[in-house]
# Entry
Amino acid sequence: MALLPIIVAPDPRLKIETRPVEAVDDDLRAFLGDMLDTMYAADGIGLAAPQVGDERSVIVVDLTREDEERSPMKMINPEITWYSDDERVHDEGCLSLPEHYAEVVRPDAIRVTYLDETGASCELEADGMLSTCIQHEIDHLHGVLFVDHVSAIKRGMILRKLKKAKKQAAA
Ligand code: NI
# Structure
């Protein structure tokens, strides 16, 4: 198990289109374990491969808190096959946009297909917070960040602040 460095926006590696996983093997399972450790260490509830510089189409999600029994989900090649008409608003954050939050409107419920870490085909219906989190993570697999769902003004403000913080950290 290893902690992976998390890429902070703005960064071209967060804007890539990932490629589907062809073989679910030990290498991938080890990577998913590292992603989960990295997410827990950063106190996150979701993480997608591009956030740690990887181009495979995988995400991990766990809505439980540190003091609860953990309930990790590892999704390989996740695809949303259905969205509800009902919407939900959530004040979203992201480990790649630290300390910034914005209200994002998304469909409340989804149906998602994916492979689990044994390579089995799975289907899940989710709503509420779990649905929001899965949609946010799947967005990452297509180069989309939560700020891409808000106004250009708000997006520009957040990205400028992150850029400035990076420059200061590098100086
Ligand atoms: Ni994120």
